[in-house]
Amino acid sequence: MNILEIKNLRTSFQTKQGKVYAADNVSVDIPRGKITALVGESGCGKSVTAMSVLRLIQKPGKVECGTVALTLEDLEKIELMKLDDEAMRKIRGNKIAMIFQEPMTSLNPVYTVGDQIIEAITLHQGLGFSAARDKAIEMLTRVGIPNAKERVDNYPHEMSGGMRQRVMIAMGLSCHPSLLIADEPTTALDVTIQAQILELINKLVQETGMSVLLITHDLGVVASYAQKVVVMYAGQIVEEADTMTLFKEPKHPYTKGLLASIPSMTGKKEARLNAIPGVVPRLTNLPKGCRFQDRCERKTEACLGPIDITREGDHLFRCVNPH
Ligand SMILES: Nc1ncnc2c1ncn2[C@@H]1O[C@H](COP(=O)(O)OP(=O)(O)O)[C@@H](O)[C@H]1O
Ligand SMILES: [Mg+2]
Fold it and tell me: Candidates 28, 48, 215, 285: which one to mutate for ligand 1, based on the most atoms within 8 Å of Cβ?
């Protein structure tokens, strides 16, 4: 059962060099009650995909086509691309929470962080003030804010950047979203806090059946928390599988390269970071056929033609010379 089904999503940006498709025919199913990871090098279109789903793409960007179906607990299917702006606003923050590395809606400087979380809780959960305040303190504690009882009355400027980020996470999670879209939520935080927040997200998945789309470039995080992995490269999905399969039997040479670049996965302590040579092609200058061909050791004539997605059960890959 999928909570979200993204089909043939195409998001373009008008640039000086012409139009580019940052998400190019992206189709992803996000299963309910699980953590799905979206991975790939910087600039491959992960954030654009998330922002397109949330209908937050701004000019010069545009969602050209595609459908995004949200199926809530009552099994009502909502086509997000067809909602009016008001209905979409209600979905965001209510049914779908989002947390970003750089919070777009930063905290309001004239209210305490507590007031802002309490407002979110009362709005979405209909709790009274005192219950909402307790809940706010609980959530601040759970995201690793020390002395939450006192910190709840701080103004944003009285907190460090890392703490403000945790407040944003607490606010997103306190609304009991059905789906959480987390775009590199912990990248800027230190390792201990990072682990604590991922544990919290994981716990909410177990306890409440929340579904998660976790965007990350950290394959260690993927291995520890995600049940499903989707790999993007230059605007396209190049591989998708359950986590175990993807780590054990990656088909796409790009995925294989990504996995080889994590030292801890090789089991050797002194393993050298084996980064994939070469660079991601510019979206304005994509090669015909496979977009990874210039960096690929397995390249043949066939890679120059159109590449279809191969399906082996739930394992998908866009490669004609798979491993
Ligand atoms: N505001 C913008 N204007 C023009 N191009 C953009 C803009 N935002 C994103 N892009 C294009 O979309 C691509 C994917 O960006 P993004 O989704 O942010 O990558 P990431 O996978 O690192 O999250 C970028 O490489 C860039 O070409
Ligand atoms: Mg990004």
Answer: 48
Indicate left, alpha or beta for 240 from its phi (over 0: left) and psi (-120 to 50: alpha): beta
Give pLDDT tens digits for 51-88. 999 999 999 999 999 999 999 988 889 999 999 999 99
Which neighbouring-strand residues pair with 227? none
Residues with Cβ within 8 Å of residue 118, at least 6 apart in sequence: 129, 132, 133, 136
Q: How far is the CA of 131 from the centre of ligand 2 (A)?
A: 36
CATH number for the region 2-95+177-317 comes to 3.40.50.300
User: Is residue 22 lining ligand 1, measured as CB closer than 6 Å?
Assistant: yes
Residue nearest to atom 3 of ligand 1 (CA): 13
Report strand pairing: 236-242 vs 228-233: antiparallel
The domain spans of the chain are 2-95+177-317
Contacts of 246 (CB under 8 A, 6+ apart): 229, 231, 239, 240, 255, 315
Q: What is the pLDDT of residues 258-293, one digit of tens each?
A: 998 876 554 554 444 567 888 899 999 999 999 999
| Residue 90 pLDDT exceeds 70 | yes
Residue of 11, 12, 44 to mutate, ligand 1, most atoms within 8 A of C-beta = 44
